[in-house]
């Protein structure tokens, strides 16, 4: 009888995800022993501990009322203060709001982490969100903030990072360059097919039978749940029509939407790339090699959307959606799309990196070129060159440009981009920066007068910085998508270089992300 009661209660607990995380511990303990008694009593012990912990959580749940939100913090969170300690607040909050928050954690008497549970008064800095998925989707988290205030917060973030982390003499930081487009500015989006749709409170309240399949975005912190999207304000037409048309087709055909937990299903992922030339690339990932259904899907897209200039598919049976190690198969059109920038043409393949805001990328590169002050006789090194966009963009104003990138495929794209534009004064090399830039390399390619560097979010490794210091170019133009790691690198470069110009650039409206361009000149 006790066993039956325990089994019933155990089945109830299995429906609670937090308990499932606890249960995995007991499975790991017992799977090698295959001892039922050990498994049974370990699970019973976990049940008791779980109940006591949940009871203790509810008893000690701390709610703070009427907290004033003072400012933004990193990663888009907000800041309040409680008893002299900083409170990092997640959720729909803006500086100037007065809110109630639930304390989620407390770190060594230094700061709290909390989430908004109620709002009493709203800040004057607020705007009306334009997207119905705001607050659920996880993207465009600053829709509720006026754009002019977003820009001020981003400028302040750059200023804070450079002053607090770099701690080097700085010039007056120039005004942030706003984005002309604040919606429909992205040229690439990825959507996921899933048989585990995330239902909003409104959908649940409507009742009735709900479609469990979805094509949309991952819910934050829930890798297995997908929010179905009807209209996204990030990518221009025909992006929404293609996504919605493909979803309708897959449902009508009875295709199995992907099950991420079990790596099962047929339709898996959709990648859409648009270009400022009007080109459109569509890539569909399938999780099963069912060629008949693949051909039917591709034929539907080709016939329904003649705007597609590059139609490709990937058969990906792995446990993750990453496709950079997979083969993209061309079904119709060209194997690439083309972007234009100041008369230059850049080919973008299915795996190519290209700045996701094409219009603002042009403005960013113009600032980098302005900072470089090229006269036509300089040797320029473009580090982390990617597909050679910056290298080719500045080549007309330089004597020679050398691009270095650790991804060999990107270097091949860079060479192609030079060739199709008739640019003959560029050379590109693949390899680890700190290993490639040795003395033999410098003798072969000439020591640089100007270095332009655009590293990933992690910034430059210290050995790369040390290499830069040894090369001693006259100028370094540092383009960064993470001003915190950029500030760390500026502190290292201070040994031989002074910061003479700083200009933030907004590439991603309604997010906390900001690009920053810094000019360093040899002391």
TrEMBL record:
GO MF assignments: rRNA (uridine-C5-)-methyltransferase activity
Highest taxon of source? Bacteria
Question: One GO BP annotation here?
Answer: rRNA base methylation
Which controlled-vocabulary keywords does the entry list? Methyltransferase, S-adenosyl-L-methionine, Transferase
Q: What is the lineage of its organism?
A: Bacteria, Pseudomonadati, Bacteroidota, Cytophagia, Cytophagales
The UniProt entry's sequence similarity note says: Belongs to the class I-like SAM-binding methyltransferase superfamily. RNA M5U methyltransferase family.
Q: Which SUPFAM superfamilies match?
A: Nucleic acid-binding proteins (SSF50249), S-adenosyl-L-methionine-dependent methyltransferases (SSF53335)
* Stretch forming the signal peptide: none
Q: Which residues are annotated as active site?
A: 481
**Which CDD domains did the record assign?**
AdoMet_MTases (cd02440)
Return the NCBIfam families for the record: rumA
Q: Which InterPro entries match?
A: MeTrfase_TrmA_AS (IPR030390), MeTrfase_TrmA_CS (IPR030391), NA-bd_OB-fold (IPR012340), SAM-dependent_MTases_sf (IPR029063), TRAM_dom (IPR002792), U5_MeTrfase_fam (IPR010280)
Residues that bind S-adenosyl-L-methionine, according to the entry? 355, 384, 405, 454
Q: Which Pfam families match?
A: TRAM (PF01938), tRNA_U5-meth_tr (PF05958)
Output this protein's name. Answer: RNA methyltransferase, TrmA family
User: Where is the TRAM domain positioned along the sequence?
Assistant: 56-118
């Amino acid at each position: 009888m006790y066993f039956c009661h325990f089994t019933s209660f155990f089945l109830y607990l299995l429906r609670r995800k937090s308990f499932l995380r606890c249960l995995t511990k007991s499975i790991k303990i017992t799977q090698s022993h295959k001892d039922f008694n050990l498994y049974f009593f370990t699970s019973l012990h976990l049940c008791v501990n779980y109940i006591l912990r949940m009871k203790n959580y509810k008893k000690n749940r701390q709610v703070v009322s009427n907290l004033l939100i003072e400012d933004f913090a990193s990663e888009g969170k907000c800041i309040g203060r409680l008893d002299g300690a900083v409170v990092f607040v997640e959720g729909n909050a803006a500086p100037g709001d007065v809110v109630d928050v639930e304390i989620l954690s407390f770190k060594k008497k230094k700061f709290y982490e909390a989430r908004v549970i109620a709002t009493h008064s709203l800040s004057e800095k607020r705007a009306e969100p334009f997207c119905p998925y705001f607050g659920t989707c996880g993207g465009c988290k600053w829709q509720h903030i006026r754009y002019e205030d977003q820009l001020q917060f981003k400028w302040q973030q750059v200023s804070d990072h450079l002053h607090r982390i770099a701690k080097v003499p700085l010039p007056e930081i120039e005004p942030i360059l706003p984005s002309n487009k604040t919606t429909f500015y992205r040229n690439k989006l990825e959507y996921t097919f899933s048989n585990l749709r995330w239902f909003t409170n409104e959908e649940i309240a409507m009742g009735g039978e709900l479609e469990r399949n979805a094509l949309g975005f991952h819910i934050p912190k829930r890798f297995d749940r997908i929010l179905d999207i009807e209209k996204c304000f990030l990518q221009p037409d025909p992006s929404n029509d293609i996504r919605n048309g493909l979803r309708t087709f897959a449902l009508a055909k009875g295709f199995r939407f992907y099950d991420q937990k079990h790596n099962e299903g047929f339709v898996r992922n959709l990648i859409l790339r648009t270009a400022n030339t009007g080109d459109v690339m569509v890539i569909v990932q399938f999780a099963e090699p069912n060629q008949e259904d693949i051909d039917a899907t591709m034929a539907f897209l080709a016939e329904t959307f003649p705007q597609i200039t590059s139609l490709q598919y990937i058969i990906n049976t792995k446990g993750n959606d990453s496709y950079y190690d997979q083969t993209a198969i061309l079904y119709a059109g060209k194997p690439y799309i083309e972007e234009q920038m100041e008369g230059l043409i850049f080919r973008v393949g299915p795996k190519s990196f290209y700045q996701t805001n094409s219009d603002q990328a042009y403005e960013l590169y113009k600032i980098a070129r302005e900072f470089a002050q090229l006269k036509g006789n300089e040797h320029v090194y473009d580090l982390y060159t990617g597909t050679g966009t910056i290298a080719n963009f500045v080549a007309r104003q330089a004597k020679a440009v050398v691009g270095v990138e650790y991804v060999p495929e990107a270097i091949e794209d860079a060479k192609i981009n030079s060739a199709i534009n008739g640019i003959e004064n560029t050379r590109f090399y693949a390899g680890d920066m700190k290993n490639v830039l040795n003395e033999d390399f410098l003798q072969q390619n000439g020591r640089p007068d100007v270095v332009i560097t655009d590293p990933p979010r992690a910034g430059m490794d210290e050995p790369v910085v040390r290499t830069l210091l040894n090369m001693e170019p006259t100028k370094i133009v540092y383009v960064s998508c993470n001003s915190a790691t950029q500030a760390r690198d500026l502190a290292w470069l201070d040994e031989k270089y002074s910061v003479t110009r700083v200009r933030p650039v907004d590439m991603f409206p309604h997010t906390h992300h900001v690009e920053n361009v810094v000019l360093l000149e040899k002391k």
